[in-house]
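Homework-ish question, so no full write-ups if that breaks the rules, but can someone show me the predicted structure for this set?
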Amino acid sequence: MHIIDSHTHVDEYEAFGWFDPPEVIIELLDEAGIEQAVVMTYADAPVLKSDALQYIHDACQRYPDRLIPYARINPHANNAAALLEEAIVDLGMKGLKIHQESVTASAHHKAVVSLVKKAATFNAPALFHSGDEPLSLPQQFARLAEEAPEATIILAHMGGYHHTDDAIRVCEKFDNLLVDTSACPYPHKIKVAIERLGAHRVLFGSDGPGCNPKLELQKIRRIELSEKEQQLILHDNIMSILEEVRHRVPGRRPH
Amino acid sequence: MIIDGFTMVGTSINGYQLTAEELLASMSSNGVDKSVIVPVQPKTYRLEPQNEAVAVTQLRYPDRFIGFCRIDPRQGEDAIAELRRCVLQLGLRGLVLHPMEEGYTINDAPAIRLVREAGFLGVAVIVAAGYPWVSHASQIRSVAEQAEGTTIIMSHGGQINISGLAQADAFLALETCGNLHIGTNGVYRQDFLEECIDAFGPERVLFTSMAPVFHQGFERDRVRSIKMKESDRPLVLGDNMTRILEDASKTAYEPISRVKESHSGPVVRDQKPLNKERR
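A: Not a homework solution, just the prediction itself:
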């Protein structure tokens, strides 16, 4: 089965102490038997890392058959919308990543909503951190989901350690919310998410290379899923999202 | 010898449950030889009968289970007495503190006193660690500094934060307190475990599943996935826990004089230390 890891990182960012050039994730993907991975930086453009978009673009250019770029952008930046447009139209990126703790804004902050709606104009998904931290709580996504019903919004980590049930509950309420399995420490909760949301709304992700993709894949292997469910979670769901992304703005040519 | 250093047996008020027989089945299917078993918080809120149940289970399956007691430090003198009862009379081999479920802060005076008492008795303490308000690594570090004679194991790698933002504090705690160790259950980022092993040695990391909250088999997978020297992996998988239990037994009597010096409250010195005899 062709597997796509929908959540990994490539970055060399001294402040966080995480040095993961593209070769690191490629090696781990090979170990795990994973063909492709969505990648993003640890640091947000343009505030923490001014060249973050170019960096991730260059990394993917080195492994065009393996790595799929998302743009990690701070919504508070004055040029956030322009950066996202540049990333998708000119650099061929496939999605937006926002980490609320990193950008100090909850999912319903107006700057976040605005950028997510911008992503939706390209049919590009918005991948969010979700967990137990004050700006990342799953129920905070309800307002965003209401304000941007046209957007595809993915809650990474399924609510972390103590908000997994909340992540499933909020996704039950809003059809445009999905979850990814990355770093979720509970295999049985992934099973619950599949039962309550449907396999079509659960994406396999690892949050590698810090979280080992092979281990993360074990979670999916350990829960008893049908072949069809595995196909959706490990490949089809993310592929169908990525295929819908439009890399053009009416009336504007790519640079 | 593969030892799961932290499991919980019973029906918890917090919505999870695990019987001894279910745990044995899980151990068999996941290649775990022994498990440390700990009481859950029951619906009655009373931990003492749970400690007795764990002692009975340990006696029933002495080759498979190592019993630790669970105590709420806010019981004050009664908590100290319960620890001594559990170790000296019931033969339990360690103490577990779960500040999140019981509802106290790990570095409040009653908890520190209980941790020190565990050291005097020669038993290790597992702390359900990483809960930001009650058992953050920086708070446990403070406890460890005030209870240098006690071996303390922090569950969750000492950090529950799926951004990785608590790792620095867990790392600092390990760096500054040689009596601190970490359990592997649920740790965010396997490379954190690898960095800890590189920095502090494989002796400071122990396989813990915290089943049934976490899946014992998947947590076993987690340890298997750590990139480390294969010759060191047995330490993490069980030898460290064996050493901690043995080390504790060696020092069980020595600190009794310190107990006399340290406590003005009632101390049951005339009780026979059954755990020493058992060994």
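Now go work out the reasoning yourself. Hint: The radius of gyration of chain A is 17 Å.
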